[in-house]
Amino acid sequence: MRRHATRVLTLEFRAKRVGTESNPAAPVYVKVVETTALTDVVEVELTLPAGAYTVQAKANHWLRGEMAVVSSVPWIFAAPTGATKVTVYWDEVAGATGYRVRWGTVSGSYPHRSAVLPADARQWSITGLVTEQTYYVVVQAEYNGLWGPPSEEDSAVPHVGAIPWDSGDAPAILRAVRNIIGGVPHGELFVLGPDQNYYLEDANGSARSSLPPGYYDAKNGLLYYSDGTVVPITTSQQNELQNEGSGPYRRVRTKSDINAKGATGLFYLPPPIFYNQPYIFVSGSHVNGGKWDAPCIYFGIKSKNADREGGIMFHPAGRRNVPYNRWMPFLAPDVQNNREKNPILGGFSYPTNHIRYEGTYGVGLLVRISFGELLSGKTKAVALFVFAYDAAGPVIWRNVFVGYSRTITGQATVRRVISIAQKLSEEEKKRGYVKTGSFVRNIGVGCVDQNWLIVPVMVLRNSQWVEWTQELTDQAGVFPGGSPPVVRVQEIDRFTYEIVSIEL
């Protein structure tokens, strides 16, 4: 019997961004495959960052010609901006020479399209639409007449009272938000638009826009503030309780079939020191430039197409030269998308965003955190309400944060997290946390202690607020486990009232 040798053909594909072909320092993306197929067609998948590329192929020798390819637009957002108008926003595709917006009233079908928009376009308004009709939208990037694939689809419903994001008019935008959520005193409302403009006002109602206070990188779980501050947040979007490489935490999550779309809770924060007993401490060796231990209390809401987080974080006196301890609200309105940077609300350097947390013989604070969508998601906005009370009851501080967010689709889950988030090295991430000596003790969830129950933690289900009970809970636990425990949970009424301590 004669045996024939099988011929193996090696194929090499190389891609460089358009305009960098002759630059030897520019990144080159390479994919090498081997085939024994007796066919002229070989399918190869080469994953590239968003952009326009020149692609070459070689099989023993460089094949004739070059081909330009354009990737899809990495992020788009369609927002209702009027009774008959939807405005579409998108991120840049490097090297693109133009864009077009396509839309229709049926998902997956886009019979209407805009003219070719310039390379620097990042938004476009579709006008003359039917109010209360859902429109589905995609964006395509162009390179000299060659169109890339459509972006992911987004949708929006034009309606009366929509927030006029496209106007850039700070007073009008803040006024529209107030019409939706109710009266908020001047100086206590902070709003982030899909164009990444940040809208705020002083106590006299004088409104202005600015750059966002910072950005959230969902890949590494870090908040990057405009003053250079880098703060970790426990990245807890994963389904299972596990080492997430970002410090110890307690997490409780609702069942997906109850489709919870919001959460509210009153948290008790003991005073920093009470009769010489410290209740919160961030190790001095990790205050500036070190691990940036950051105690956090927050809610997260996740659905098939969206994930957002909002709550408060603690920073000790001396961090970034602020002379007092403070808890500071933060809102990351969209942490599940393809953007490299996700704008956040809550300014690290804004004193109006600081809940001062001082006193040796105080009685601590009660902080109400409420988080969820506005107007059943039609506005495509999410809101974080934070109110701080002293133990006697009066409100001593309050702020409201509103940001754009994709509407929840399908079933949603709500998670509650108490953590000491840590900025870890790659080696430390393998363990998931590092001993620093930092701690938080006796943070009350819906209660102060076993004898003083305040109000239960609740979730928004079927447009009704209901107690967060064991029957609604899918998963709860702590990381890390083991003994002696780093995280301790004293359950008063599972999972409605509890007391959490974390000691590193």
Give a description of the structure:
With 504 residues, the protein is mainly beta. Among the domains are: 9-70; 76-162, Sandwich (Immunoglobulin-like), CATH 2.60.40.10; 212-262 and 284-434, no CATH class. 3% of the residues lie in helices and 44% in strands. The protein contains two helices and 41 strands. The strands form eight sheets. Strands 14, 15, 16, 21, 24, 30, 31, 32, 34, 37, 38, 40 and 41 form a 13-stranded mixed sheet that branches. A hairpin with a 5-residue loop joins strand 15 and strand 16. It is globular, with a radius of gyration of 26 Å. The termini are far apart.
Spell out the blueprint of helices and strands.
Layout: E1 9-17, E2 29-35, E3 52-59, E4 61-62, E5 67-70, E6 76-82, E7 85-90, E8 98-104, E9 112-113, E10 123-126, E11 135-143, E12 146-147, E13 154-156, H1 170-181, E14 189-192, E15 198-201, E16 207-210, E17 214-217, E18 222-225, E19 230-232, E20 249-254, E21 262-269, E22 273-274, E23 277-278, E24 280-281, E25 294-302, E26 307-315, E27 326-332, E28 342-344, E29 355-356, E30 365-373, E31 381-390, E32 395-404, E33 413-421, H2 426-429, E34 439-445, E35 447-449, E36 452-453, E37 458-461, E38 464-467, E39 473-479, E40 487-493, E41 497-503
Parallel strand pairs: 14-32
Antiparallel strand pairs: 1-2, 1-3, 3-4, 3-5, 6-7, 7-10, 8-9, 8-11, 11-12, 11-13, 14-15, 15-16, 17-18, 17-28, 18-19, 20-33, 20-39, 21-30, 21-34, 21-37, 22-23, 24-34, 25-26, 25-33, 26-27, 27-29, 30-31, 31-32, 34-41, 35-36, 37-38, 40-41
